[in-house]
Each structure stands twice: as structure tokens, then as C-alpha cells.
Amino acid sequence: MRKRLLLLLAALLSLALVTAGCGNDDDSGAAPAPTEASAPEPTEAPAPTEAPAPEAASGALITLDEECAAWDGIQAPDGFRVNMVTDIGKVDDGTFNQFAYEGMVGAAECFGIEDTSVIETASEADYDANLNTSASESPDVLITVGFLLGTDTMLAAEENPGINYIGIDQFHLEYPANYVGVLFNEHEGGFIAGALAASLSESGVVGVVAGREDVPPVVKFVNGYEAGAKYINPNIQVLSVYNESFTDPAKGASDAQQFIGDGADVIFGAGGPTGSGGVKAAAEAGAWGIGVDQDEYYTTFNGGSAPGSEYLASSAIKRVDLSVFRNIAAAIEGTFAGGVFVLTAENLGITYAPFHDAAVNAEAAASVEQVRAGLADGSITTGVCGIDGLFIGEGSLCD
Amino acid sequence: MAQVGNGTARPVLEVEGITKTFPGVVANDNVSLTLNQGEIHCLLGENGAGKSTLMNMVFGLYRPDSGTIRVRGEEVHFEDSGEAIARGIGMVHQHFQLIPVFSVAENIILGNEITKGAFLDLDTARRQVDALADRYGLAVDPDAIVGDLSVGEQQRVELVKALFRDADILILDEPTAVLTPGEVDDFFEVVESLTGQDKSIIFITHKLREVLAVADRITVLRAGQVVGTTTAETATQQSLANLMVGRDVVFRVEKAEPDPGKSVIRVEDLRVTDDRGVETVSGFDVEVRAGEIFGIAGVEGNGQRELVETICGMRPAIGGRVEMLGQDTTGWSPRKIHELGVAHVPENRSKHGVVAQYSIADNLVLNRYNHRKFSQRGVRNTAAINAEAKELVERFDVRTPGVEAAIHTLSGGNQQKVIVARELTGDLRALVVAQPTRGLDVGSIEFIHRKIIELRDQGVAVLLVSAELDEILSLSDRIGVLYRGRLAGTVEATEATREELGLLMATGAQS
Amino acid sequence: MNGVGNANAGVGRAASQVHRFLNEVWRLQPLYVSLYAILLSFVVGGVLISIIGVNPFTAYWALLRGMVGGGDQIAGSVARSVPFIGSALALAFAFRAGLFNIGAEGQLLAGGVTAAFVGALSWMSDLPGIVAIPLILIAGTMGGAIWGGIPGVLRAKTGAHEVISTIMLNSLVLFGVRWMVNSRDPVVLRDTDSTVPRTDPISETAVLPELVDSQPTLHVGLFALVGICFVVAFLLNRTTFGFEVGTVGLNPHASHYAGINVNRVIVASMAVSGSFAGLAAASEISGTNGFFQPGTFFLMGFDGIAIALLARTNPVAIIAAALLWGSMLSGAPLMQQEADVSIDVVRIIQAMVLLFVAADAIVRYLFRVRELDQSPFKATSIEGAV
Amino acid sequence: MTTVENAAGIAGTSSQARLDRQSVTGLVFGFLGVALIVGVAPAISSSSRRFNFEPPPDPAGIGFDPPTWVTAIGVLFLLTAALGFAPPAARVWASPARLLSALAVIPLVLVLSLALSDNPSTNIVNLFNESLVLATPLALGSMTGLWCERSGIINIGIEGTMLAGAGIGYMTYATIGDAQSTGWLWFSILISVLAGGLVAALLAVLSIRFGVNQIVGGVVINLFALGLTGFLRSEVIVKSGITTGVGTSEFGLPLLSKIPVIGDQVFRGQPIYWLMYVVVIGTWVVMYRTPWGLRVRSCGENPHAAETLGVNVVRIRYQSVILGGLIAGLAGAWFSMESQARFEDNMTNAAGFIALAALIFGKWTPWGAFGGALLFGFSRALGTRLQFLGVEVSGFEIPSEFLQALPFVVTLVVVAGAVGRSIPPAAAGQPFQRSK
Q1: Is B308 near chain C, with CB under 8 Å?
Q2: Which of A126, A284, B403, C148 could disulfide-link to B389, CB 3.0 to 4.6 Å?
Q3: Closest chain C C-alpha to D305 CA, distance in angstroms
Q4: B369 interfacial to chain C (CB closer than 8 Å)
Q5: What is the pTM of this model?
Q6: CATH number of B250-341+427-511: 3.40.980.10, 3.80.30.20, 3.40.50.300, 3.30.70.270?
């Protein structure tokens, strides 16, 4: 069984390379409609060596408007419908539910889609029913958010060949033609955050406040963080805590205080509001904070008005919105094809946020950008398995 | 204040034409009553005659449907007992209204707290309690926890509570029920001294002897109505009893000479602790033979409850042994003991005797529901249960609309009849019965007494525990006195006198 | 709301007409309060929906169609309700014994994980369905019974209050199964082929037959759980064990006096109570999911408390209450999809239903319903009742 | 609930042949002592470890040698065990020894975990400080329960009351206020408190006016608060665009915070944290030292007796339940305006239920309940600490799930093993009907 997985991993990684190429296209701003992840003719991939300009620390973070411009000329036909089913949570909960939703809204604005609707899942027992209810409107695209929906999404995709499914965080061995599983190299994001943390840390101790350990993206972030920190400073001490809930900012804040008490001066939060609680507590206490998923300067720090924003160094960005946007675009364009769609450092699906108010010194800024670029061009590898997030060589699926 | 002797006709409390109905019951029907300054006015009546209801209205706990109450000539309409207290009315309830986990001082000041600034001033409270205790001869320790006190002490706390509030009209509801004969005498002295200090007292009781000993005037209630007012000088026990019950009352219980057989219940050196871990039965011995009634007298709280519960298997012993029908039953479960043919009429009717929400039928099989007659393979045979219940209801004269009515709809007397019916049925060898007639009317008392004697005549060994000395004296063949967890002495019923028993109950020593 | 108050007289008159009809034709008098409570709750919910600028009728129409709008919706609603029957019975049964079992949440997990473990044993596939299915259901039932029995034992032996111990045990089992299902080193119950933390799929032979291919699947477990309700009703009302449970619940002192082993009844009631949750979980694992995932039963135990209380702990009424509860949850997504009204509103309505059923005096006042009998919600103190 | 409590009483009286708790405790300590001295002490690394009293760099602290400490604690346990079986004259020392041994479990766990970790030192002052912070909402919640249950009303709606306080308070801060200025912050905290009182008033009306089973009332409140705050968050807070703001800020107590090394850690804190102490002490003072407190307690023990003394039981019960609600509202404000200035769905994460457990743990007394909250807060902070110290037992890192479960295990063990039966106020759960 493990061998089979390994084979698929290889396939996955090769696909990732292709996607990476597309990403860079966007970045250069020169490409016409980006080709989709899964229409793989490797030769189409432009040279990934076209690295972003060094000063573009934040240039790697493209806005949906910029993305929209890249898809210039496409309009959704009348009656084009995009639906979404969230994981447990809501479209305004500040997690991947919200980012996926923003991607959908962005695409709707960009392409003139008028019909959208969302179902927020309240219980795991509702997954299949919600997918079914959503499918009953016969949408052209149905976005399902979260790895736990993977099984049900697969069944639904097989049952409704007329609907294009975008599954966030959903990994399968094979996909039907109408189902894209979007994966993220969170370990790369964690690695970037870790590198930044190690560059900023003066005490040689950094921490990460994480969500639940049974959620693979969380593990990928945490282990990637540790790897990234050690990449910069092999002697650094990385303190990590998993929490039982994603919605306990008070506990996250307390974790951060404990880290600080043991000397940590940079705290990465990787667990929804719980992690944000840690980041904010750290920043308010005068330690560096690093956010996750989206630019927490705008969410946790309310665009700089919340106290401590000068200590939010950056955020490890995971472009859920971009993945949704691009796949919707592909569906409109008629190039939607099933398979894995990986967002990586290479295709700018994984990057880091601008420093905003934070006085990150030039040295740290340069080293984090160097790490990002290194991950993007493949010269740096994280050493963390992209499937389960464990360290390669320590019993991960990638071994 | 001028010293006012007995009989001075200056009314301090006038009740006129009071009527009070509860759903389905007229508790008081046009009742009138006058209490004069400095007198002791006895309110006499059977259980359920409406005495307590009337006094609860005077004390502001209930509101009358019609009629007026005047205190010192002024008409009052109390909304709660606080207003009654403010008018100088104090009441000592039959069931003490104390908070067991509080100290004596806290119990006394509750509702009329003494404060220093915003805080309780327990020091001053203690001093005041001590002063009151001295003045009226009511020794209480202000710092004791009420739950640890004997009932007699608790009653003193209740009295001090009323006096602390400057009550000069005192309502005493069945105050002697829990006292030894000697304590009763002491208590009467206290009461007399209270009237000497300008207090007026309403004394509620159903004990004729006490009425004649202490009352200035007597009002008799029956079924919610005043059936007569008289004075202690003109009344006799017989006349009062006839007034109270409404027919001629026979005081003596007819019974044949005992014919004791072999030993059925034997208790040796039994030691038991109560719920708080205090040893309340310490070295108790008794032997009850078939065909005799052994009465255990004693002031409540001397270990009666623990003794009975241990004999019947409800409470573990920490030492000694219990033997029934020749078998060592120490540590047996209640069920095993019951199945040996030992019936148990429990002291606390509502706590142990019945399940209030269950039907009469279910209560009648409460400890036999698993017998083959009433259930087969774990399924209950409702028809058989109801048939049995109908028969028992008839045989024991339980007044009820039907066997499926919930038992809490019955009066206390009828509930007790249900318990007695349940326990006195079947192949009995021994009967342990505690306080079998507490709170019942005369008719029910007579009925239950007859049933107990019937059983004894059939050769059942009966262990009777009662706080009513009269009950012990009239039923028992032999009488033991329980004092501080031991048998203080045993006397033949024919030779027993109230005085001797009273002394044993109070001191544990024979004269 | 204010409309209701002003129109009280009119409502009252109309209501009495309705009463007469219901009373004479269907003999439904005991249901009045519940029906009006539901009505009133929807009115309150409607006000909230209007506040956010949505037409409540549009929203409710969508909700209704989501609940019972077609065969598939009906089957889905019923299927959603089935496990609630078990978790509500868990509370109701213990309640009869005077115990407040708020541990159904954990008992579901314990039952579910046991069922999934047994269902995935390699030799299960060699067994015929007629053996394998009962086996997986029994396994789940036992799992729930053990997890429910622990607080019973603690209560009986040490006096530890079951409210604390069931809360603690809920968390313990949740962390336990999360670890068992997630851990790769060592592998405990994890399906190592899956990126999702879950157990190995159960054997085909242990899958409960499907009744309707709805979402979620309506399966034969429905009959098991509905059947159990009647069994429990029989157990409580007609058997000696039920008599013992009820006696202990109403008056433990009298039970002790009557020779009932109170401790044994406490332990047995808790275990039996947990077994219902375990059975519900097993039937979900077997009939719907095919594997165990820790989040599947999230909030099902706590909803069970509300459902049991809504049904006044009457086992047969639980069927109806669970159906109402489950179908509202099942219909909510369509309401959100079509009217953009989130499930929070359904939650508020559910709380209101429970509130109005419990505080029936409000409903009785508004709709002029006579008091039929003593509401079981009015706690009676034993001393007070005698 | 009456019957529930009664069942406990029976369960105890009839369980026979039970080893008494003291000898069981003695045996457990004896076994532990032997295990520590013979098994654990030789097995753990003897490289020196350090407890720091302040954050690095150059923290003050004490270094120690783990095997020595483990052995010492083992000897203490053995002594305790021996005292349990000693001649009566020596037994007066048994009880203090047991207490000392129980307390020694804390340093034991810390020493062991540090010895098993690859981190040579950790800041224990910070650990205790965070324990107190995490205990804040639990302590406040248990005071809510205390006021309600001492007056005779069982409140399992603490969770919902807190959540409503948190949600409505933050909503006020973000919409009416600006989520920035201290004035609005305090105004919003006040609104939280009042919201808690309002929710509790609902429980009071249901249970006192309508005689609804108090547990049902609590369940209604929990359900209702969950739905309502979710609704308000989506429809009001998120739409306002201000999902986060400025929370309360720390301040140091005068003088005390100037104490070297620990002063700035221990005597610095945020206002609701300090208010928690005020509430606990205030609860104790008011409940045991004032006339009103006396009346409240009397209503929970014997309302009919209180009534005969002119105490207005109904009014007292309303007052105490609402007071309890105000405290729960403050606990809610801790979540949404002190720990973090934000509101998340269900952000109280069952703290209300844990608070209830702390109350029962503490046998319905203010200090006991506070102790229960502390125990839970400490084991939660300790679970975190053990996780990030990377404690490994014979080569295996303890799974995070186990460490997250720690507070629940500790509470269960303590409640079942050491605390045993706690007797609630006699009249808790019983509706009170005024005499008519």
C-alpha cells in the first residue's frame, strides 16, 4: 500500500511542478489565461527560473484583482452557478472556509457570476446531505472545503458528472474528470515562517501555537516551521503546542505566554483563531508574531488598528482563494480537468505576507525571501512529507 | 408592664370567622378564637383538625379566604411572617424550622440579623442569645451547629428564636411531642414563667393530659370547626376526648395475656453509626420472643432510627450481631431479611415508606414486586398486582378512589394504612415497627393498634419503637428504654409506670 | 411577538375551536402545548429572520422543503434523526433512575469506535451478514454501555457526582479516539491508506442494509432504534427492572428500604443508558459511514439531552422529538442555500421550542390551554408531595 | 435533582466492606514511594536541571539533580504511608503528611518532566502564573454556580451565560463602541456583565416563576446562547468589519510588582484577572459575613424555615441567580475582551461545565471551588508545558491528545479518589412554592 502511495506522491509532485510553472506565469504578469494544473504537457511550462525580483518580498503576494486581470476577457455565461459547502464553521470564521469563500466571491465579481450560494456545515453528519442539497441546484462548479469532505465529495463527483467539483485539501489516489483536489504545501509555508522566525529571534527560542494534531495541514505547518527555523539556525529551540480546539483564542494566548516565559521571542500561530490568539498575545507582549493562512495584518490586527501590529512580522500565506479562483476560471474557460492542483511556493500559492508596520531588519527580510525563492525554485526542500506532514525519514508516508 | 394574672380578659389576639380552603379540603370553617393577655390557651384537636392551618394564618404564612384577625385590637392582613413577627407574634413549629448546617446563633438571627456596618455581628448575637437563655432558663450554646443538637435542644433554639424577636404572643405547635415526661414538666415550667413575664401563649396539642395540666382556656377543633371552648377547671379528659373525636373514645386497648414462644429477634452488643459517622447505638442488647410485643421507649435521637435500620438490614453495623429466627442476619440485605418473614413499618413514612408518585397498588407491592405472584420472568403482572391491591385496600379500610391513584393524594392516615397493609400481609414471623401512628387521627390509631395486637396473638414477634409513651404502655408486653444507644432497662408492661419510664428516658438510670 | 400578545383574545377563541376539533376527532389534547410551542418558536425565529432582511416565509418554505420536500428529503431527515433517538434515550433512561447522564456525547464515541474496530476485524468478512451485523451492533452497544457504566460505578462506589464524571469522560474519550484514529506511530486504529484520520473501513458483511439511498443513507438501523424505544417503554413500564429503576429515581431511600440494591441499579441504569448511545453510534458506523471518524458524533449527545427533555423523557415521544430535531437540522442547509439564513436560526428556534414546552405556563396563557395534568417538568420534591 | 442527590446518600450508606479512604491513600503513597525510589530515580538522567523564576536570558532559578529530588519525594511518600499505619500517637501527623505528599505531586511531576525532556530548564513562575490566568473564567464561573446553588437553584446554564456575555459584550464594543478606546472597553465589559445577568434572569424566571425543572432551564439557556451569539456574530459583528480590537491591558500592583525577579510576573495582570480575586473574596465575605449572605444560604438549605422568619425566599433566589449571572457575564468578558478582544462562535469551549465541576469539587464553598478551578487551570497549563518541553518516556513522545486530556483525568481522579461525595445545599433543585 505504501508503495502505491509513493507512486502517487511522485505523480503528485510532478503535477506540482507543472502548476508551479503556471504560478510563475502569473507572477511575471505576462501570461495569457493560465493553463490549469492538470492539463499536463510539461513542455508548456515556462521556465521556472524566472525568479521574482528581489525587492518583491510582498510582490509574491498577488491580489485577486491582479489575478483577475490576468484572466482578462473571460466572462461567465448567463446562468453560470457556483456553489460552496464549507467544512464545520462559517464563511466568516477567518479560516480556510472564509478564504475559499473570498476566492469564490472574487471570481464571481471578476467573471460576472450572479448565481452563488453557500451552505455552512454544522456537523460532520451533514456532509453528504449538504453536498446533495448543494448539487440539487445543478451548479456548474461546486467548491467543497476541507479534507474531511474528501470522501463524500468523491462520491458526489462520480454521481454528478455535470458538476465540476473543487475540493480544498482533498487528496485521493485518482480523481474523476470533474473533480480537482486542491492541495497546499503547508510545510513550505511553515518553512518560510520558521526561517523568518529564526532570522528574527535573538534568544534562540521560537514557538508555534498550533491547532489539532489530527488535521494534517496543521502538522505540515508545524513541522515545516521547525525545519525552516533549523535551516537558518541549527541550534534553535522550537517550542510547539497542539491544541484541542481551533476556536480557543484564550488558550492560544496562554500558550504564547508560556513560550515567552521560557524565552521565546517569535511565535507562529498555526491553528485558526486559537493560533491567532497566540500571535496576538505575542505581539501585544512585544514578541514577534507570525500569522498563518492569510495576511493576519488585516484580520487579527484589523488592518493595523489593533495593538501590537508593529510586531506582526508576517504571515505564512496559503492561497486558498487563489486556488478557488483559478479553478472557477478554468471551468468557465472550459479547461477544467480532474486531478490534483497543488499550490506551492513555486506557483505563489504558498508565500508570505508583507511586513506592513513591522520593522523587520533587512537581513531577516533578505533571508526569508531567499528561502522562499529557494523553495520556489526547488533548491531548498523542507524535509517534511507533503501528505501527512511528518518528517521524511521518521515514518512518514513519503518514506 | 403591670403583672397580669391568669384570666385577665384583655384580648391580645382575636380571630373571627376565619375560613380557609385548600383544593378539595376546607381546613378552617368559620373559626373564631380569642387569646387574652398572659393566658395559656390550648388549641386541641386531632391530626388534620385544622389547628396548624389556623395558626399559620395568624403567623402570616397562609392568607385566610375570609374572616379577620386582630392583634391588640387592630385588624391585620399579614403578607408574610415577617409582618407577623413585627407585630410580636412568634411561632414554634411542630416540624422545627431550623437550618441544620447553621450555628445556633445564625439560626436565631436569620431574618432579624444584627449587624455592625454591613457585616453580621455574631458576637453581639451570641451575647444576646446568652442573655435570653439566662432570663428564661433556656440553656443553648450559640456556637453549636444545630444539626448536632438533640431535639430537646433544638426546641429550646426555636423558643429562643421567637423570644429574640420580642414575641409576646407565642404559638407553640405540638411542642411536647419530642420530649421525655420529665422534659415536658420542665417545659411547662418555662411556659408558666413566660406567662409570668407578660407573654400570651397558644398551645397546640392533641394530648389531653397536657391540656389539663397547663391550659387556662381550651378551644377544641374538629374537622376545621370550633366544637367547643372551655376552661381547664371544668373539663375532664373524657369530655375533651369526646369533643375532639366526636364520639365516645375508649382509651384502653383490649388485649389478651401474652403467650411468648421462642426467641425470634436477638440483638447482641450492637454498635451502629449514624449518617455523620457518630456512634449512636453502642452496645445494644435485646431479645424478642414470638407472640410478644417488645416496646422500646426513649427520647428520639437516642439511636432508635439506626437501631431499627440495622435490624432490618438498611444500615451496616460496626460491631455486634443481629440474629433472627436462629440465623445470624448481621450485614444481610433488606431483601434477604424481608424474605425471612420480617416486616418493617418504617419510622419515616415519606422517606422510606412510600414512593409518593407511585400508585397505591405499586406501593402495596413495593418490596414484593419481584415475587412470583406479581411478576413472571421479569415482566410485571399488573392484573395480579391490582387484584391484590384491591383486596388489601378493602381489608385495611384504606379510603381511596381507586388503587391506581397516586399515593400522595391520600391523607397521612390512609398512607400509613397502605404501609401497614403491605407489611402485615404474608407469612410473617417478626415485625419491626417504628412510630406506627405518628400524625394519625384516633380512628386510624385504633385500627393500627388492633392490627399489631392481632399479629402478636398469631405468634409474631413484634419490636415496637415509639416516642409516644402512651402507645408503648398500651401495646407492649415488655418495655425497654433506649438511652444513648443502650438499653437502659427493661420492665414488664404490667409493672411499668410513667414516672419510672420517664426517669429512665431522661437519665438512663432506674430509680 | 407583540402581535401575539395583542391578539391573545382572538387567538384564544380560534384556539378553542381547534382544540375541540383535535380533541374530538383525534384525541390529541396532550399535544396542544407542544404544537403551540413549535408555532410560537417559529414566530420568534421569523422575527429574527426579518431583522436580517430576509422574508421569513421564503426562508421557512425552503426549510420545510429541506425537511420534507420530497422522498429524498424525507428519507434524509429521518436518517439524520435516527442517531438522536439513541442519544436521547441515553439521557431519558438515566433520568428515570434519577441520574443526569450528560455523557451521551462520549458514549456515542466509545460505541462508535468499538463498532468500527470490531467491524474492521479481518475475520468479519468471513461471517455472513446475519451474524456480522448483530455482532457490530452488539460491539457498539457494549462500548457505549461500558463508557456509560464507568460514571455509574464511580457514583456508586465513591459518590463522585455523575455530572462531573460524565463531562470528564466525554473529553477523555474524545482525546482517546482522536489519538487512536490519528496516530501513525504506533498505528492503533488508523486507516493508514487514508490521509483523513479515520479507522479502517468495516467489512462489507457488517454493513446494515440500506432502505433509501438518501443523504445521509436511511438504513435498517431505523427499525432498531425505533424498536428500542418501544422496548424501553415496555422495560420501564412493565418489567421489574423498570420498576426498580423508577423507584430508585423517585425515592432512593424507599428503594433501599424495599430491598432494591440501589448501587446496582445506578450502575445498571448508567450502563443501559450508555448502551443506547452505543447502539446509535454502531448503527451509524454500520449503516451510514462505514468507518469511524471522531467528529461524526459532534453535538449529537448534547442535542440528545434537549430532545429527551422535549419528549419529557417518554421513550416513545422521543421518536417524534428526534424526528422534529433531526429534520430541522436536515432542512436548514436548504434554507441557507436559498434564503441565506444560517443554521443559527434553527438553533434558536430549537431552544425556543424546548423553552416553551418546558415553560408551558406561557403557552397555556397565550393559547388558553387548560392544564391537563401535572407537567413532568415541574420538579416535585418528595417531601413536598406527601 | 433532589432524587439524584438522595441516590448519592444511599450509595454511600449501603456500600459495605469498603476500605476506608485513608488506608487506600496510604497504600497508594507507599506504592508510589517504592516505585519512585527503586524504579524511577535510578532510571532518569542525572544531568542537572534547573527551575527558572523568570524568563531568559540569565534567569534566576535553582538547579537540581533529578534523581535526588525524586528519591526525596519518594521517601516523603513512604513516610506518609507508614504514618497511616503507625500507632495512634503518631497518627496526628498522618493528615498533614498526606496533605504535604499530595502537594509534593506538583514538584514531582515538574522534576520528572524536566528530567525526561531535552530542555534543561523551564520557568516555573510563569507556569503557575498561566495556571491562574487559565483558571480565571473557571473560578468566576464556579462563583456563578455557587451563588445560584447556594440559593437553591441548580444552574447548568453557566456555559451559555458566559457565551452570551462574551458575544453581546464584544458586539457592543465593536458596533456601538470603536473597539479601541478604554472608555468603550469598560462600557462593553459592563454590558457583558449585564447581559450575563439578563440571561440568568431568564433562568430565574423559568425556575422560580414557572417552576420549570432547573436542568431544562439550563439546557435551554445553553442552546439559546449558542444560536443567538452565532447569529449576532455573523449578522452584526462580522458585518461591522471590526472583528478584533484593543483588549484590557496589564498593570502591575503597586509595590508588589516591584519585588525582584517574580514581582513583575506574579503581580502584573489584566483587570478581569484581578477582579476574579475580588469576586472570590467578595463572594466569601458576602456569603459568610453579611445578613444577605446568611439569607441566601438559608434559602438553599431550608427555604421553608427561612420563610417562617420573614425571609422573602423568592426575592433572594432571584437576586442570587441574577448576581451569579452578572459574574458569569464578567467571565464572558474575559474571553472576548481580556484574553483577546474578539469573539468566536462557542469560544467558551465548555468552560462553564468545567466551572460546574470545580464547584462540585469544592463542595459548594468559595475557596473549594476556587481550588477546583486552580487545579484545572494548572493541569491545563502543565499539559501545554509538557508538550513543548518535549517530554519523552522511554523514547516515545507523549501524544498531544494525552496531554490535552490531562486536566480531565486529574479532575476525574481527584473527584473520584480524594474528594468523594460532596453534599450539595439541601434544597438545591427544589422549586419553592410560597405558602398561600
Answers
A1: no
A2: B403
A3: 14
A4: yes
A5: 0.89
A6: 3.40.50.300
